[in-house]
Specification:
Blueprint: E1 22-25, E2 30-35, H1 46-53, E3 60-67, H2 72-83, E4 88-98, H3 100-105, E5 110-113, E6 118-121, E7 125-126, H4 132-153, H5 160-167, E8 172-174, H6 176-187, E9 203-204
Parallel strand pairs: 2-3, 3-4, 4-5, 4-6
Antiparallel strand pairs: 1-2, 6-8, 7-9
Helix pairs in contact: 1-2
Length: about 200
């Protein structure tokens, strides 16, 4: 009988080979998820969305975030999942958390920030193609819609002056201590509850 040499055998599937590794521990009642690359198109996060939204109320989801950002449509999908799960979501920030990554981080119920983390907020970027009138209408809609959305994302985390500066094109870089201080200020007037309960009631960032 012919035996296939080990060097030519297909590797056994590993969760670590996926774009978004998801590890569940039913004993500890935890789900650990890794967002450690650019935020890609929404279909990349279908399993993420399902696992987060359907997690039981007594679970804790540990979301490790280390990303330069990416597609805002995918970030909105991830944010929606975080805001509409019964579980508690803890964001673990390390390395660089930029652009769309900050939108995701600030949706979490709590955050843990590693030393030397770089947190960067800026206005969206992207491209539009089509007929002149179509591009103009699209750009006007995106600009208005995302500026409203950004005010929602960063409410209580950025001042009105900072928000306007970012809309005008200024990047804002924050270190660990600055992120934690703003997080504490943002949540200081929110009643202490185990978690926000609830069900559900191309530009890049």
């Amino acid at each position: 009988m012919y035996t296939i040499p080990d060097a030519f055998k297909l590797d056994k599937f590993s969760v670590w080979d996926t774009a978004v590794p998801i590890v569940e521990d039913t004993t500890a009642k935890t789900i650990t998820i890794y967002l450690t690359d650019s935020i890609e198109t929404p279909d990349t996060y279908n399993e993420f969305f399902h696992r987060v939204v359907s997690a039981p109320a007594d679970y804790t989801i540990h979301l490790h975030i280390n990303t330069p950002g990416g597609y805002i449509d995918a970030a909105l999908m991830i944010r929606h999942a975080i805001q509409n799960t019964r579980a508690t979501v803890v964001g673990h920030l390390s390395g660089t958390v930029a652009s769309a990554g900050t939108v995701i981080a600030l949706a979490c119920n709590d955050i843990v920030v590693a030393d030397h983390t770089a947190f960067m907020i800026h206005n969206y970027s992207g491209h539009i193609a089509g007929k002149g009138n179509e591009m103009k209408a699209h750009q006007q809609f995106v600009d208005k819609n995302l500026n409203i959305a950004f005010a929602d994302f960063y409410q209580g985390f950025l001042s009105t002056k900072e928000m306007q500066s970012i809309i005008d094109g200024q990047d804002l870089w924050l270190n660990k201590d600055e992120v934690l201080a703003r997080w504490a200020s943002k949540h200081s007037d929110i009643p202490s509850t185990p978690k926000r309960r609830g069900r559900p009631s191309k530009a890049n960032a």
